[in-house]
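pinned: reference chain
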Amino acid sequence: MNPLSKILFLSSALFFLSCSPQKTTAEPKVVYKTDNLSVIQLSDDIYQHISYLNTESFGRVPCNGMIVKDGNETVILDTPTDDKSSEELISWIKSSLHAKVNAVVATHFHNDCLGGLKEFDKNNIPSYASNKTIELAKEAKANVAGHGFNDTLTLNAGKHKILIKYFGEGHTKDNVVAYVPDQKAMFGGCLIKEIDATKGYLGDANVQAWSGTVEKVKAQYPDVKTVIPGHGDVGGKELLDYTIKLFRSN
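pinned: its structure tokens
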């Protein structure tokens, strides 16, 4: 290749790179980890938090939640499983993300969603749950969120809207799903299963309704790219399909 050709080639390559869309999201990576709590960054503004629940039937179970961040604001979906882990999470958000927590939402009434709620109360962080969740939590003598809503709730973390919606019964009578439209990211909670998961705990479930409820979720958010289940590995829309198939026979 002669010198003029080399110059033309390099100029063309630089032009192509400058005009190509640049990747703005981070690769998933662990950004915090202790024995009680892990935080995984899934994209620039979406994080998965993982804490642990000791159970008789399933042993020490990792439990997921989601953090949505923009600027110095965050919203958390599901508390960690206890106050100690919640304290760690709130402290990490303040010190590492340099952000405040606008709100925390419990997606159903089990302890893997609201076990650490008292720590949020202690930090004067507003807590939300559906009125169904509040009613069931009171019956179970569990922690109770400070603010209720009926079927839908919209919260904001900076420019990100978080849509929380009840689609029907499944894992529990009250399970809700959170969706961040501009990130195409969903926190499905325990309504959604990871790939190859078993049916899990069914003590409060409506297995007959479960598939139909998830079909409604899939129809409402056809563009979803990131799905965080209540337990296990993050995926995409295939988690919705897997959950529908898992419970369809019932």
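why pinned: The chain has seven helices and 13 strands. Confidence is low (pLDDT under 50) at residues 3-25.
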